[in-house]
Amino acid sequence: LCEAGSFSVGNAASCSLCPAGTFSGSSGSGECSKCPAGTYVSESGAKGCHNCDLNFALKRRIGMAHCDLCPDSGSTFGTDKCYRKIRMKCDPSFDECEKTIDNDVNTYGVTIHILHAPAGTQEYRSHWQYTLDQVANKVKGFIVWPRKYYDVSSSRNLQITLYDSYKQELTRCYIHTDFVHPYSMHECAASNVKYMKINHSYDERNRREVSLAEFALYAG
């Protein structure tokens, strides 16, 4: 009998490995099964398939050798469509802000609460502020990646404020990030967004600083 991960056709004396995108979970198989939608396997001879992260991949096709990822680092937000990741820049630009949008979860930015900032600290260093490359008409929400290997018993609350092209406030969204999960996803709907600011929430005024590895905003 052919071992799991392989198959033989009819009375064939030799066994063949299941090709990428398929698997055989038991011995004696006459054919391989395609990986279910939302799963994949890139190597041949697989006994099972791997789950895709469906917050970043679509669950539409079977027999996939790789996850059906949203283009350009987009996110599904748990739906069956992709939301695009919005390009933005720090405004003003400084190192602690740039590290929050450098596409590297191993770097992190730190912002100091304005109440705890040393004398002479520039006001802008108490928050991160961004300008979107273009107006986002239908913002879906955002994903936050916390600082890795930080005190896992700690948590931080952040306030996200979205503004229009005239810098008029559109909405505020509050998030509670923990340091156990690799990222957290939050809906924050708004239209005609051009600017954004991240800072400590009022309830976190006793926290001196907040660390953030990566932040991404998404729109339909």
From TrEMBL:
It comes from the Eukaryota. It holds the Pfam family Ephrin_rec_like. Residues 5-52 form the Tyrosine-protein kinase ephrin type A/B receptor-like domain. This is Ephrin_rec_like domain-containing protein.
